[in-house]
Amino acid sequence: MNFRLEFLALAYCCLCMMPQSTFANQKEDKIRLAGFINNVWQHAPQLAQAEFEYSAVLQKVNQLKRPRFNPELSLEYTHSEVNTRTLGMSQTIDWSGKQISYAHQFDLEQERALLTIVYLRQTIALNTLKLLARYQLLQHQVQLSRTRSELLSDLVTSATQSMRAGDSHELNLAQANVAQNESLFDLTKLESELLSTETQLHNETLVDAKFWPSILSQDINPDFESVTDDNLITLSQVKLAFLNWQLAKSKINVARANTKIDPTIGMRLGTEDNKLLFAVRYEMPLLIRNNYQAAVKEANYTSLAAEKSYQHEIRKAKISFISKQKQLALLHHTYKTWNTSGFLAQQKQTKLLQHLQRTKELNASDYYQQAKQNLDVQISALELQKSVWMVFLDWLYASGQLDSWIGVNSSLSTTAIHGEQQ
Predict the structure, then answer these.
(1) Separation between Cα atoms, residue 75 and residue 79, nearest integer Å
(2) Number of neighbouring beta carbons within 10 Å of residue 273
(3) What pTM was estimated for this model as a whole?
(4) What domains sit in the chain, N to C, each tagged with a CATH number?
(5) Cβ neighbourhood burial of 15 (10 Å; 0-12, 13-18, 19+)
(6) In sequence order, what are the residues at sequence separation of 6 or more whose Cβ sits closer than 8 angstroms to the Cβ of residue 295?
(7) For residue 272, what are the β-bridge partners?
(8) Which end of the chain, N or C, is more open, meaning fewer C-beta atoms within 10 Å of its C-beta?
């Protein structure tokens, strides 16, 4: 076997871990990344559903801006000994303020529907970026794992030849076979994970893989001082919980309005046996059998539950933020240590192995073992990098910085959905 050619392939895989992007490339990739996320939003079915639900709520709001009760016209003719002809009109008056109560409720529902779209956009962006980072890192891991598997296959061949020549024990061959099978297991697992991630990413984006932008060219430089847990009330999931609470409180006013009466005033004009007839009518419902107070109590309890849910959402967001920040600080420190010292040590090992191979100071068995260790370290480093990216993206989301990092705006105006609403 040609050790030199084998290790040149190994050295090429090493370069996959090295940061090669310039500032200009990073900027270009960031622009492509922002366009990619915007395209994903445009084709996301769950977003389309939320947008139609928002349009439905908007129509409810427009309906409630009009008077709640329409006037009623009545025409009556009675043929008997005394003929009666009357024309009347009546109008129910919204003395209880039901229209105002309902309008306020649906204004809040409109705001909640709009914020739901923002929340969905952010979660879709987060999931897409995590899948993209995982997919691209898995590609490198699979490449390294294949090289390792090929390397161990050659080790089995070398051990077989040495045993036949009487230069090594049968145990060496058995160890080489076990190592090769273990590498095949790892390779199959990584390839399966890569296929699964690629399928998920394709279903999420509806874009061919060749058009997926690079995310690994971006630097991971978290600014832990730029955000505190005081900013968590601006997170879309927290704002949604707050709106749910406010909406529940508005339903109390609606329930109270339903306990009040709305009288009807009417008048009739006509003739009775050729005599002029004029009548005034006043109707008032009697809340005797049902005073609707139970609905008020129900709305109060629902409001209290929504308030507790809002408080829980704040605590959950705070815990998530603190947890992700601590995880990121730990992983990022290890990642920086690898980039500053561990990566250099691995590169030094690569050069030493190449030198010893050229001078034939290293036998085949030792060379294979050292080369395998070199590849194992690279695969582990990629696994670390994957963990860093996952936690980094989670931290951006938990701290409300995901939009600014991508370069997109998940918020939108009320006229941005299906064009201007009439």
Answers:
(1) 14
(2) 10
(3) 0.82
(4) 3-406 (1.20.1600.10)
(5) exposed
(6) 255, 258, 259
(7) 84, 275
(8) C
